Amino acid sequence: MKRWPRLLVFVGAGGVGKTTLAAAAGWLSARDGARTLVMTFDPSHRLRQTLGVGAEAALSEIPVAGAPGGRLRASLLDARTTFDRLVERYAPDAAARDRILGNRFYRTFSGSLAGVLEYMAVERLFEVRAAERYDRIVLDTPPTREALDFLGAPRRIVEFLDSGIVRLAFRSWFDDSGRPRLTRRLGPLGRRVEAGLDEIVGVDLLRDMVEFFRAFGPLYEGFRARAAEVERLLREPETGFLLVAGPGEERIPETLYFARRLREHGCHLAGVLVNRLHPPLESAGPWPPLLAFLSRRDGEGFRLLAERLGEIPLGGLPLLGDEPAHLAGIERVAGELETALAGLG
Predict the structure, then answer these.
(1) What is the rounded CA–CA span in Å between residue 236 and residue 249?
(2) Domain map (residue ranges) of the chain
(3) Is 243 helix (H, G, I), strand (E, B) or coil?
(4) pLDDT, tens digit, for every residue of 155-176?
């Protein structure tokens, strides 16, 4: 890459080394003088181990000891913590804040509902970018499918808040005694219907859900506005995506699929990096059969991928002897990554 973007996003399948490369990219950025934050919303939290930061990185941005010039920090996304902070920051008053934080539905599901992680990643990214504390943000994402969920999260937030589903919560579903108004009107039959509903879903859960959406009402417009901002951020020229792939011909369909989806989302694909390539064999000497096979496999897969990517830049990184587990190992990977990025043009 001739010029590094302000937001650099690493995406790809699981087990291809995205976290390691994201950490190495952060190291290079800091070495070159940029105040850099490496952040992840990968639930495995491997970035914490790789950069040697503790669990407190889920609460704030933590300096990475030994990083060049002290310019590198790391942050981990904890969905529940981020959600709590948003409520505390944007609730219109203390009563509204306590009403949400004390809601049983919120306490039980705020960190585990489908899509919450991706939604909170959107909010966290907005928060960090808006603070303007960093020259560059390097974002490590979870495997392909979850990363696609992240890319679509801003649009889904807007669509959900604009839908009629949210407005339904503001109807008068329960009376003052907490009973559903609809079943109360049915007399004895209504009590049987209510009992069945309670057994299948749980009337208390439904009541807590309705209360949660009502209490959350004043925050909807803020969520909507920030989601729209992040959607623009992911598509602007200062944001670049690096797609990390594994070696071998069998990985090509998955890599091409993800490259196509990125472009469909309007994202700038800065390049594809094939990681952990077995080195080419210089001669037909006495190489072990397995090593010779893997070398030919990786070389042929790289050639075919280059043909099918067309104008999309392609680079490769060699397989190292062991997986870097500390900053010293990250520095070694950073050297290989720098060479690969320079080859992207």
Answers:
(1) 32
(2) 7-101+112-151+221-343
(3) strand
(4) 776 776 676 656 655 555 444 5
Task: Quote the CA–CA distance of 115 and 105 in Å, as a whole number.
Answer: 16
Matching CATH number, 7-101+112-151+221-343, of 1.10.10.60, 3.40.50.170, 3.40.50.720, 3.40.50.300: 3.40.50.300
Distance CA 215, CA 100 (A): 6
Measured in degrees and rounded to the nearest 5, phi and psi for residue 328 equal: -60, -40
- According to DSSP H, which parts of 163-270 are helical? 164-168, 181-184, 188-200, 203-215, 220-233, 252-264
Residue 262 and residue 241 in contact, taking contact as beta carbons nearer than 8 Å? yes
Residue 95, both tokens: 């009563």
The residue length of the chain stands at: 345
pLDDT, position 195:
47
- CA 48 distance to own-chain centroid: 15
What sign for the dihedral angle of Cα 233, 235, 238, 239? positive
pLDDT of residue 284 exceeding 80, the answer is: no
Q: Is the pLDDT of residue 101 over 50?
A: yes
The confidence score (pLDDT) of residue 334 equals 94
Sign of CA dihedral 297, 299, 303, 308: positive
On whether the pTM is more than 0.70, the answer is yes
CA 90 to CA 159: how far, in whole Å?
21
Q: What is the pLDDT of residues 187-214, one digit of tens each?
A: 554 454 444 444 444 456 666 766 777 7
Sign of the dihedral defined by the CA atoms of residues 325, 329, 334, 337, in that order: negative
C-alpha distances in angstroms, 54 versus 94, 134, 181, 196? 31, 21, 50, 48
**Tokens 């105040």 belong to residue:** 35
Residue in the structure block whose two tokens are 């790289």: 302
